[in-house]
Amino acid sequence: xxxxxxxxxxxxxxxxxxxxxxxxxxxxxxxxxxxxxxxxxxxxxxxxxxxxxxxxxxxxxxxxxxxxxxxxxxxxxxxxxxxxxxxxxxxxxxxxxxxxxxxxxxxxxxxxxxxxxxxxxxxxxxxxxxxxxxxxxxxxxxxxxxxxxxxxxxxxxxxxxxxxxxxxxxxxxxxxxxxxxxxxxxxxxxxxxxxxxxxxxxxxxxxxxxxxxxxxxxxxxxxxxxxxxxxxxxxxxxxxxxxxxxxxxxxxxxxxxxxxxxxxxxxxxxxxxxxxxxxxxxxxxxxxxxxxxxxxxxxxxxxxxxxxxxxxxxxxxxxxxxxxxxxxxxxxxxxxxxxxxxxxxxxxxxxxxxxxxxxxxxxxxxxxxxxxxxxxxxxxxxx
Amino acid sequence: xxxxxxxxxxxxxxxxxxxxxxxxxxxxxxxxxxxxxxxxxxxxxxxxxxxxxxxxxxxxxxxxxxxxxxxxxxxxxxxxxxxxxxxxxxxxxxxxxxxxxxxxxxxxxxxxxxxxxxxxxxxxxxxxxxxxxxxxxxxxxxxxxxxxxxxxxxxxxxxxxxxxxxxxxxxxxxxxxxxxxxxxxxxxxxxxxxxxxxxxxxxxxxxxxxxxxxxxxxxxxxxxxxxxxxxxxxxxxxxxxxxxxxxxxxxxxxxxxxxxxxxxxxxxxxxxxxxxxxxxxxxxxxxxxxxxxx
Lengths: 383, 294
Fold this sequence. Notes:
The structure holds two protein chains of two kinds.
Chain A (H helix, E strand, L loop, with lengths): L1 H26 L7 E2 L2 E10 L6 H21 L2 E9 L4 H12 L4 E5 L4 H14 L3 E3 L14 E3 L4 H16 L3 E7 L3 H17 L2 E8 L7 H10 L3 E5 L2 H14 L5 E3 L7 H6 L6 E5 L8 H14 L5 H20 L4 H9 L4 E3 L2 E5 L5 E2 L3 E6 L2 E4 L2
Parallel strand pairs in A: 2-3, 2-4, 4-5, 5-6, 7-8, 7-9, 9-10, 10-11
Antiparallel strand pairs in A: 1-2, 11-15, 12-13, 13-14, 15-16
Helix pairs in contact in A: 2-11, 3-4, 5-6, 7-8, 11-12
Chain B lengths: L1 H29 L6 H18 L4 H24 L12 H21 L9 H4 L1 E4 L2 E4 H23 L1 H11 L1 H6 L4 H27 L6 H16 L4 H21 L5 H15 L8 H6 L1
Antiparallel strand pairs in B: 1-2
Helix pairs in contact in B: 1-6, 1-9, 1-10, 1-11, 2-3, 2-4, 2-9, 2-10, 3-9, 6-7, 6-9, 7-9, 10-11, 10-12, 11-12
């Protein structure tokens, strides 16, 4: 018994020592790496979903970072070094990866993680440690509200859907809407909540609300009911896989009214699956690859030569995110975590490939998404 | 509206019925629940897409290819997953069930690799043929699905009850050993049964592809589970029961959506099944003695 007591005493004191060391590390934060002949050298940690079923997202995101890094470093004002860690899409792995990165005093900021669920555990930790963190693909409600040090540059659904709805409602003089959504998926459910809120705000009449489940193949019953009630517009919170089939079956049945979808509906796959039936879909998105902006086209060309495929929304968001970080570092004038946070919070009207970008008071995105509509089997900008 | 929903329900129900027919045939003869049936059905649907969309062959060729491929899959299922387990000492009666589950997972993963995840469209001019009755659009495919399901049911009943092969099959179902002593080539009969059941799955696959325009590697599982529920509802191993059960499930699912809440679609459909089973535990067309005999 006494021996056990002694041993645990040793253990406790050892733990205390570690704790002390950790505290010391934290308080003497990074301020080294200062200006050397005008260039700011900074190390930025990246947490991304690189292995597992969602690895394609992580790949696109890190490719976007690397491309931006190359360009930024060539310009010479800021020299960024990326330290990339894999989260495998898991909360606990994202957390330990972020802790590893945070404990490195030379790292001034974090980019990532990929999923909103991961951000929900990593964000508070980063905020506690006083290191700026920016999500590039986290669209769930409440992410930037986690803390002062948490930012994002990905447009949340709550911002994108209302913009698309507003334009469609105005154009088609909509009075009655029907809603349809997948009730077994957090993402489509939250999209539906946003739609419902917006419908109430716009004072539209909801004729019916229908649900479906992932992987369902027959939507005729729901659509027949919608058809009978004659709405002017259908709001569909669905992933593209189900959404495209819903549109196809709706058009076959003779439903001709436009559809408004969420972020999950925004994929060229919709056209592949539904063909002509996809005409009349509205989505709001920050990223449009056919935008006639030389910046956008140059990015696409560079990305294609570097990685052999077309960039998607995630690569574009990551690319812009690193530019935002570089701008923050430039304005801060030194590679310091607190100075960087303050500089980031003040970023306004920064021109990127996604458009003009600003942070609001919470560190959330303030920008106008583009509303796209499918016409003649192609995504086009809706005037 | 009512008429339209009725058509929707009958279409869905007929598809369920064709899938259930394949289930019930294998169960009736072998006493095995073939969990791979849904995946064989899914392969049939993909064959339809490959033949009509990629190879641009006519629709009848799609049916032939789908029937051929699913028949081969059925043969391989019997040869490699079921036969090695049959009549061996110490093999649990659950072993064939587990091995068909294994085959179903294998087939799903293979189709993931071959065809990719996600929905594939089924583009065929035949699937576009429709006519208007008032405000209702009826597709020829919907009628054909219903007709095919009826034809299949009647052909199967006739074959089972009136032909020599059908008699041999029923004898095998009754008692495998006795039938083989009496000169029935039970091995051949069993192979035949599994192949016919699988080919019916293939036909159902193409019909679903044409009706709903959505084919994906996961579609086998949900359809397979529905088929399973239907044969229990209709009476295990009963052909008419599969047909009736399929229509009941299809119609009740559709009408729950039409006059109730689509969120409860599956819940209410299955509550109906539970109620029917409480009243008639052997299923609608099931016979008590047969159920006890197994």
